[in-house]
Hints:
Protein name: DUF2274 domain-containing protein
Pfam families: DUF2274
Order of helices and strands: HHH
Shape: globular
Radius of gyration: 15 Å
Oligomer: single chain
Amino acid sequence: MSTARKLRLGPLPRGESVKLTFVCPASLKTELDRYAALHAQTYGEAVDAVTLIPHMLEAFMAGDRGFRRGRQDARKSG
């Protein structure tokens, strides 16, 4: 495991999953594969792009202030 760099997406947690089909441009798949290789090098655990995608989406949504506010508003009104 490399300690010289940290990625925004840290070590992956284990958890329950549901299968979902995902279609993307070939260029994005190439970048996801590059990220997966760098993630594996950084954290010392082999991982593929398919495994990373849900964690990346979760991190993206957690960082989206508008989405968080909308979720909070929905809870208050529901």
